[in-house]
Every structure is written in structure tokens, then in C-alpha cells.
Amino acid sequence: MSSATTPSATGQHQLWSVDEHLDDILTTVQPLDPIELQLLDAQGCVLVEDVTVPVSLPPFDNSSMDGYAVRVADVAGASEEFPAVLTVIGDVAAGAAGPDGQLSVGPGQAARIMTGAPLPPGAEAVVPVEWTDGGLGAGPVSSMTAHSAAPEGASGEVRVHRPAQARAHVRAQGSDVQAGDRALAAGAVLGPPQIALLAAIGRGTVRVRPRPRVVVVSTGSELVQPGEQLADGQIYDSNSFALTAAARDAGAIAYRVGAVADDAETLRSTIEDQLIRADLIVTTGGVSVGAYDVVKEALTSIGDPDEEDGLGAGSGVEFRKLAMQPGKPQGFGSVGPDHTPLLALPGNPVSSYVSFELFVRPAVRTLMGLPAESVQRPRARAELAADKALTSPSGRRQFLRGVYDAEAGRVAPVGGSGSHLVAALAQADALIVVPEDVTSVEPGTEVDVVVLG
After folding, report:
1. What confidence tens digit (pLDDT) does each residue in 294-338 have?
2. Fewest CB atoms within 10 Å of the CB: 104, 154, 164, 429?
3. Is the separation of the CB atoms in 190 and 47 below 8 Å?
């Protein structure tokens, strides 16, 4: 952890600000080392080097329509009443050989050509099949007959009912990208369109920072897996599902560990077992001041410099109180011999989710190698649409759930301020931010909004 961001005041009960805590996390967490991946394995990853186009795309002039490759002079003035009659010399299909192995279109001739097929020598344009009689000797047709059903369509005559300008319906060589162009710049996130481009220019692998592996561990003896029967005093474990989904949404490969009972040694053992597949560990619950706050009990004591393996080797987790609501209790540090970052979040569902958005999501996206301006959710200013003033505790930065209308520039609170209200969280697509020095926000006031959607 960075001492530069530690609050200047000291003492066990010192409050950290939201910004100090986040800055400490982002100063400590470093992007993962680059690796070479196959294209599909690189989806969602961040490119670490510019990619240059080795061959122009398309690599040759080709047809954008099913039709006939013709010379412009041969179809000049053509109409349905006075069609141009051309001799069909054969087919040019997609995948046909290059110019040296193709048909050559001479005066008065046409080659039946398919979409994507190379423009044959001598041809200057393509007329769509809908502009012709398809070689049937009647009026305009809507499509070609399959070659296998009517191979004679590649010979005989075709009547063209409309003229064509030079290069009509021809995709020029290099009209997409030219050899030597920069296809993608370092820092690009590889989604389906980017992967399509890489494949189109012949790249089978690419050098990227891998998607971080995030392990989510929920704690609490009262937690039961969804689908099981609840006993008295038990609740379903929603946090691990919410945070695993949120980690995937942030770009990570996320693993959910079933709820761990309130036993410090069991938790320590569970986290140690997960280190082999974790670039980041997130726990939820057990970070406050209760007698059964197992995360705090299990991780406060680690960090023995003489320990050579396990959680304590070169590790340390600090538990803090933040000047925020919800989410006051937080923990951050590293565990294990590889100093795997660990963020310990509170257990109330809203506190846990808000803490993820503010602290874990930026850590995940920093591990991915995204630029600093892209690691946090976007923010906006919006007019508060509410029936009454919102209240907020002095000295705390409050994050209230809201529904944001970007077009109208307004945001409305949804649900109360309780950190257990999951139903209201499911309706929200934004967080309304009330600063530390503000205790009341009147309707119509302009507020900061964290946009979640």
C-alpha cells in the first residue's frame, strides 16, 4: 500500500476518504504482464502493441454483387426495350484463382460473377443479376439459378437491361485498409469487430494483457446457496453472485466461491487454496467490529515476514473506516507469496455492490491495462427529481441509488438509504453522489451521478 496516500492524521479510528482509499488501491495495483493469445482467447483483452496491416484489404478487386462482369462500352445505352446482348464466357466464383488463372472478358462478352469473386481481366464493372434476364431470354430476374441445377447458365447469352458506370459494384483493392496502415492501436480493447479485423488481415495471435482472474468469496454462517431450503435465521447468498457478475461485467474472468462459515482458519485456508487462480481476491462480509467478523479476524494477523509460504509471505491487509455511506468498513492489502491484491468489502448487499463499483471495478480495469481515465464508471451532472429533500450525514460521502434519464438530464432516487435494500438496487442504473459537506439536497439541485449502465 502507498504511504503517500495515507491520511495525515493517525490513530485507530481515523477515517479515510473515498478518494484516498481508491488512490491507494490504484497506486498499488499494476497491470498484468502481456502474453500472446489466440484471437478468440484475446476477446475482452487490451492490446499492448500497434498492429500493422500486412496485406491490403480486400487484397484484390472483387464484386460486391451477384451478377455479370462486363465492359462499360458494351452496356452503354442498354434498356429493357433495347437490351445489350452479351456472350457469357463462364463463371467466376468466390475463391477463384487470381488474374493469371481467370477468364478474360473481351468486347461483347460477360462473365457470370459471384459476390466476393475477383474481377476478371478486361471487365470494368459488374451489373447485378436483377438488371438482366439471367440468360433465360425473358424479362428481368430476381436471382441466379444454382450452378449445380443449371450449369448451362455459365454459357450462352445474357441480356443486360441497364447501363453501368466504370467500377460499378466493384470493391477496390485496399478500399478497406492498405498494406502498412495501422489496423489497431495499442490500448484497444478487443471486441468482436476488432477480432474480425485481426482475422481479416491474417493475424492468428495477438499480444495483449490478459483478462484478470477475480475470485469472489462471501462469508457468513447464515448464508445458504440459492435453490436450497432456508432454515430459521438463514438468508440466501446474493453477494457472491452479484460481485461475480459485476467482475465479469468489468472485463474479468470471475470465479465464485461458495459461502464460507464464520471460522477464521477455514477462511484462511479457502483463500490460500484460491491463490493459484487469482489475480485479485474479493471478499464480502466480516469486516466490521462484530465478534464474528471473520475476514478481519483471519487477515489482520497475516504478514509475518518470516513466513515463507501461505497467506502471510510478504502480505498485509489493512482494515479501514471510510468517510462514506454505505460502505464505511473496508479492507485492502495483499496476500500470498505473489502479493495478490485483496479487497475486503462489507457484507450488506448495497454496501458490497457500491464498494465494488467504486473500488474493485477500477482495480480490475487497471489490471487489464486500461488507461486511468477509463477505469472508473462515467460521471454526469443531473437535476435531482425528488418529492422532498435528500438528507445525508455530515462528513460522509453518500451514494444513493437512482434512475438516470440522460436525455432529460435528470436523476430520481429509488428506494431508501438502507444498505440491505436489494430490490431498489435492481431498479437503479446510477448512483447519486452527495458530498461530505452537504447534509441536504433540495429537489431541482444539480448533483453528480455515477452512471452504472
Report:
1. 788 888 765 454 455 456 555 689 999 999 999 999 999 999 999
2. 104
3. yes
